[in-house]
Specification:
homodimer, mainly alpha, Arc Repressor Mutant, subunit A, three-stranded antiparallel sheet, 3 strands, 54% helix, DNA-binding
Chain lengths: 127, 127
DNA sequence: GCTATCTGTGCATTTGTGTGCACATAAGCA
DNA sequence: TGCTTATGTGCACACAAATGCACAGATAGC
């Protein structure tokens, strides 16, 4: 055993639960594929756009791009609208920023409370 | 074509490049596995700890936990020290928070500039 | 020296993910 | 009614990732 249970407090338990709760696997996984990141970049530059246009210049097949856009949509990163026979995709910037903001807020206490290999010198004691 | 190239400005290009540059695949991938997330939670609650103790209660083999800890370390999320025959792992909270902060700062402009399916009503024009 | 403990790695297996092709569906157009 | 275009899906395949077992290297203690 390396620890002295000094971290067995409501403060750390709350931080742990918050971290677990905010680490949305579906959202994070959507951002781990290089092709999907390229799609995010393209949507920033192009704005709302149909699948064929988004696929332009990319090496992957159009069906592959369609699947990636679906994954991004299920993660909340993109939204889609039907326009005739086309389907227009667009970034949901506010949602993305909100999501990352929530992650940061949940993890922020770690900056002070989870310094690596640092003895706990609080609780009114002076090292 | 759905767009009118109104977004072909240095502002959007900079945001696109910033988004691509900050989306560290190795860092994000490390946080997409349920087992690794559990390890983060355990390290929050236990503090600096050796591999065997961290593996306690988890269904996976010790060797699997060892590999996951290595992945977390390569992503900068954990750090390790050798203590005799044990290897102590601990969270690098400041690095994690800094990383997420950089991501948020890079993506924050999207909240205003990438609202889904919203016509651009800036540039001094009034809708 | 020997033995026990801790850790990481090689190997094989299983599962998950990305990809491309062919095809079905839907919508516009002549 | 055909014909074309746009999109998504079923299927098979390739590759990466997670897992467990067995074992080797390192270290502590006898």
């Amino acid at each position: 055993m390396q620890n002295d249970n000094t971290k067995d407090t409501p403060e750390y338990k709350a931080m742990a639960d918050a971290a677990i709760g905010v680490l949305d696997t579906r959202f994070l996984k959507a951002l781990t594929d290089p092709t999907r990141i390229q799609l995010v970049k393209k949507l920033i530059l192009l704005g709302a756009c149909d699948v064929t246009t988004i696929s332009g210049g990319l090496s992957q097949d159009r069906s592959v791009i369609s699947r990636h856009l679906n994954i991004l949509e299920q993660a909340g990163i993109t939204a889609s609208r039907k326009d005739g026979r086309r389907v227009i995709y667009d970034l949901d910037g506010p949602y993305v920023v909100q999501k990352v903001t929530l992650i940061l807020e949940a993890l922020r206490p770690m900056a002070d409370l989870c310094k690596p290999f640092q003895a706990i010198v609080n609780k009114g004691e002076v090292a």
